[in-house]
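Q: Predict the assembly, please.
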Amino acid sequence: MFRHVNRKTLGRIVLPATLALSLGLTACGGAANEASSGGGSSSGGSSALSGSINGAGSSAQSAAMTAWIAGFQQANSGAQVNYDAVGSGAGVEQFTNKGVAFAGSDKYLTSDQLTAANAACAGGAALDIPTYVSPIAVAYNLKGVDDLQLSPTTLAGIFAGTITSWDDAAIKADNPKADLPSTKITPVHRSDKSGTTNNFTDYLNKTAPETWTSAATETWPINGGESAKGTSGVVAVLKGGDGTIGYADESQVSGLQTAKVKVGSSWNGPTADGAAKALTDSKAVSGRPDGDLVFDVNRTTTADGAYPVLLVSYEIFCTKYANADQAKLVKGLLTYIVSSEGQQAAAKAAGSAPLPSEIASKAKESVDKISTDS
Amino acid sequence: MSPRGPRYGSRTQRQLPNWFLGVTGVGSVVVGTAGALGLGGGPVACVVLALVIFVIGSSGIAIAVEGRRRGINRLATILVCTAFGIAMVPLVSVVYVVIKNGLARFDVQFFTYSLSGVIGAGGGAYHAIVGTVYITLLTAVISVPIGILCSIYLVEYGRGPLARAITFFVDVMTGIPSIVAGLFAFALFELVTQDPGYRSGLAGAVALSVLMIPVVVRSTEEVLRLVPAELREASYALGTRKWKTIVRIVLPTAIGGIVTGVTISIARVTGETAPLLLTAGFSNATNTNLFDGRMANLPEYIYFQFTNPGVPVQAGVDRAWTAALVLIMIVMLLNLLARLVARIFRPKIS
Amino acid sequence: MTTISSPSARRGRRARQSGGDAVFAGVSLAAGIAILVVLAGVAVFLIVQSVPAFSAAKSDIPGAGSLLGYLAPLAFGTVLSAVLALLFAVPLAVAIALFITHYAPRRLAQALGYLVDLLAAVPSVVFGLWGIFWLAPKLVPLYLWLNDNLGFLPIFGSPSVTGRTILTASLVLAVMILPIVTAICREVFLQAPKLQEEAALALGATRWEMIRMAVLPFGRAGIVSGAMLGLGRALGETLAVALVLSVDPTLITANLIGTTNPSTIAANIALQFPESFGVSVNILILSGLLLFVITFVVNLAARTIVAKSAVKV
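A: Predicted assembly structure:
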């Protein structure tokens, strides 16, 4: 009833097919845009670094990190940097457990977290420096309304659910000239835990404490309203429905209108420049370890042109590493990141605000604390 | 194979002609459209109403004219075909959306470039394609033998509480959320290597295997059970040993179903993002060493290009769609390869 | 297993035992035990990692302030969405499998089978995006209609304007599990004994009667297995639900079409894990353990029901 399996057929078809598949993948050895697999030895001058380091953390800064890694590797063709955008919390966790050489975080470490992280630092200390500053846009989708202006109290009212239609008196008061429809407002917030939500709720709480009573938090604190995962999810929902309003990284909201927020007595839109100004007007947090540079953003700034709805993301690293090569690579990468060249690259690739020069030079001082002695 | 055409039915029974369905179909569309428009519904309402009228109308007429049994047969046919048609709508639309959006970057650069040093537009997914193929093949190499052997145990050898426990826990295993599989594999490799920074294609493959094995077992077990006992007995009667019977008779008889199961299970895990993120890590550059270093892969590539596209946004989104298209094509190729294997091993009935 | 006696019941006595047999039996037993070991490993991992969650401070537990208050809505949403998905998917999958095996012309059937298999390969993130961009907006008019006409039912309460509801999420899940359930049903239906099918037809049965008498009883165990696999996937699906659903993780509501919806355990892990640190991670893993237990209980229930009803056939 059964014939034996024809092994000749097997040999004739399957083996070559499998071979072809695996050869096809390995024969060319690498992607056309990657350096030949000769390793670090073939690469340029004596100053170039080689080897590989890994980082993990914030997904907000992942586009910028891509640009930084690209720029860094251009100068050091023997170096390989990997960054897993697993999220700030997971990044800090991995850093603390010595899983990665540096972490990106949308929130600076608390003193407890710093103490825990010091254990990963071979006798040195863990430090935060700001590297990525990005304005958070209040984006909306409302037919026929182009230049929306929202005072903090109105904005808080919309997101708290007390202002429910676009022709509400409070919105009219902010926009005397606009022709506002009676469309229902659908506020959209992040469904995932996020640094963006943390900064946005901080802004609402600091500027409109009577309307927005919850403190800053990474998880949306109140019930009601539409929620969506990640910046891209929020943008998709905003684009999908008339009368929607939400908050998202400014670089990602192309195709949507953005509202101007009230700063002092003027109305400012989300710009990189404005975010940088707001950060300049903020004080560094005191009582932190030497070299640790973190900011509590001054949300109530009245500086000219400032835009206080912004996110500051940090890089966390050690001043000492068990392995001197790792230390050199981390130092090299971070030096590039805080340089004006690196900040410009991120501005171009991720729409972030370049660090104000005095903050950048302080950050550079912190990076210089990394000891590269073996 | 399957019987087709209304050949049954004796001369004394009244039978509706073949054009009957056409007439009721046209009729339902007319009535449905008119009704839906009259009630103020959109095009979707028209289709739904027409469909409902068609199903009820034609089976009603069939029951009245042809009698209950034949009428119910008509109803069943119409329902099966309608259900099939309804199910095809979302399935085809998913494929359509992926192809339409995926063609934007379906070019040579996409297959020859990685993302190393790429900012903004351009770049490709060479590194992720290589990574996905490697990780998927390794996952299959781990999962398929374990899965098939386990189902052989369950069907051919297993008796008593152990076999029942395995059957039951395999079902439980299918419900492990993918991210938990990732966390588990991460913790396992941290324990084994004592290096919390250990990331590799191997760790990713182990995480995926946790998800894949139960699917292989469940689907293989089902088809092995359906191999007629007579075949086994005939083989035993000829003095063939049990293991040889399994390898030479049972497995070849069920090979079609086994291959389907394996393909489905491969498809099930190739699209997983979360476990790989924790175990295989991510990289913008190519890595062909499964046992050391981060390995890029298509699901993560798709995920990150969608969620963190950078500027311009569209460049990243286009890459993501094309990567999704490529991922489906890779599974399709593996599917074809598996079917080829099945064809070679399938018993030829002479 | 109503038409074939279990082959394992009559092994041994007929087959000659030999060294090869012992090795083969041993290897396959080892594979089975390996699976139990892996599963035990996962369970131990989950338990060890979730123990710290029980001593978590109230302020560390998001929302409700107690573990039970935090986990109950998630469990509710998980079971609700998975059960709904199963209700949509299983009848459709059986119909597709019947269509492919017993109705469609052979060549077409092969092509269709291939297409359905292929859909299992679509990554879940793509299903999520398809749900947001394609499906959800198209369902909005339906939800409005349901609320207008059937609004007196609590399940059709105040409707969402974006369509990103738990009903939509269940539909997306249904589409996602359709290929798996269909593939298994199809394989099982194909194996239905041709002789019995032909005998039924020869006795004058209509095609539907033949399917009811010869195919469905034969394939019952297979359908259940397929459904269980689908259920497992629906319970554990992460990314598609996280993307599609507009969630409020503290909510328990009967409304299937509202703006805010209960979250699911797997989606909640995906949403919270990346930014979580310390004991928050342990709480999330505890929810993973709960999902594990839910899957366990659901499977136990399903197996019991199947075993009980099988006696009657």
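Chain B has two domains: 20-104, 111-345. Chain B has a mean pLDDT of 85.
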